[in-house]
Amino acid sequence: MPTCYRHPNRETGVSCSSCGRPICTDCMTPTTVGMRCPECARQRTRVHRPAAGVAAPVATQAIIAINVIAYLAELATGAGFGSVGGTVYEKGALYGPLVEPGGEWWRLITTGFLHASFFHIAFNMVFIWFIGRSLEPAIGSARFVVAYAVSLVCGSLGVLVLEPNSVAVGASGAAFGLLGALLVEARSRGIDLWSTGLLQLALLNFAFTFLYPGIAIGAHLGGFAGGILVGILYLQADRRRLPRSASLIGGGALAVVAFVVSIAIAG
Questions:
Q1: In this structure, what are the phi and psi dihedrals at residue 172, rounded to the nearest 5 degrees?
Q2: Which terminus of the chain has fewer Cβ atoms in its 10 Å neighbourhood, N or C?
């Protein structure tokens, strides 16, 4: 990852839309033609696109690939193409009574990589791609992965709190968390959430969550809350000019706390 030209200790995937220099969150000025560095923001110059562009969202692509591989494993172990089933699904789906101290704790994690149907995984992967291609370059791949992990575990915690006796699978809890983190990131840069469509996207998805039957409401609410929390953590770490590793450790601690609380609730 490139580093900010004014803060060499900060990695960033965003470049000034005028001069092309990499800039961190403290150095970004939102304009109608993209983010600009402090010097270019004071000038009315013609926009020059950098040759290299923004780094590819490799973590987003990797997460999508893992989900697809897991779904293929479900199909290979007995599930129909459009139906629930298979050994992988049965061993990895989240089911509260089986998660307890000394029990099948891995279900808190594996549930976020399994899906009930082709439509289920297709919708979630498109959602993750849409959010990830904007969020990952803005916060970096390592932070993106940690945000995904926090959102996934918080989504599992939400299921155990609100729907402890239901079976839940899907990456939607983690996807909602990424959306929450993106909202925090965009708002911190002074970007109007309504004009970008992010606020409408969140409202639409929450309406779908509560109106469509069979959706794990706890996963969506828990994941979204986890994403907002980790987004605020990243924001505060940047404002205090803490090392990038500090925010990663803090995010990891959030995931561990959610994981421990989940097992305690299940027990």
A1: -65, -35
A2: C
